[in-house]
Amino acid sequence: MAEFDRDFLIGCGLSEDQAETVLAAHDAALAGFVPREEVQRQIDAALAEATKGAEAGDYEALLAERDMLRAIGGEDFEDVKPKFREQVYALLDRGSRARPVAEQLSAIRERYEEYFISEARPARMPRFGGPTHGSMPRGALGAADQFSQAWGFAPRQR
């Protein structure tokens, strides 16, 4: 960016009054400008103030709850009854050398059988609408009062 000073503008052919007008407009345009260093200092101060009252364990607790919600909403926990999912999750070993979750769940199933859904669930298949057999009563087809016969209404008296 070019350096705008009085000598540069007069060297470009502007008069003294024109150079003064350009410099005044330039100063007015930069009046709200805050240097990058000042903005970074303000950000650092705000972060320090915000984290002063927060404890270090709050963040870890939030991460642990997030991990629990992801786990109990996943495929591994489909056979666990919904009201026992948090208790079963608490029984899992989540260390770095822990066995896979599926193996741990099978061991937990042996000890706490009542926490799990007992019947085998069929594979989930999408259903588009209900079954169609036996859903509507049938009257004599082609009759003039087919609707009233099908639904048991008395014929209309005229």
Descriptive notes:
The chain has 158 residues and is mainly alpha-helical. Among the domains are: 6-52; 56-115, no CATH class. Helices cover 49% and strands 0% of the residues. It has seven helices and no strands. The protein starts with 5 loop residues before the first helix and ends in a 7-residue tail after the last helix. 2% of the residues are buried.
Task: Spell out the key features of this protein.
mainly alpha, flat, 158 residues, 7 helices
Shape, per Cα inertia axes: flat
Order of helices and strands: HHHHHHH
Q: From the alpha carbons, calculate the radius of gyration and give it in angstroms.
A: 38 Å
Structural class: mainly alpha
- Biggest β-sheet: count, sense, barrel? none
Considering DSSP H and I runs of 4 or more, what fraction of the residues is helical? Answer: 40-55%
Head-to-tail CA distance between termini? 96 Å
Tell me the layout of helices and strands.
Blueprint: H1 6-11, H2 16-29, H3 36-52, H4 56-72, H5 85-91, H6 101-111, H7 146-151
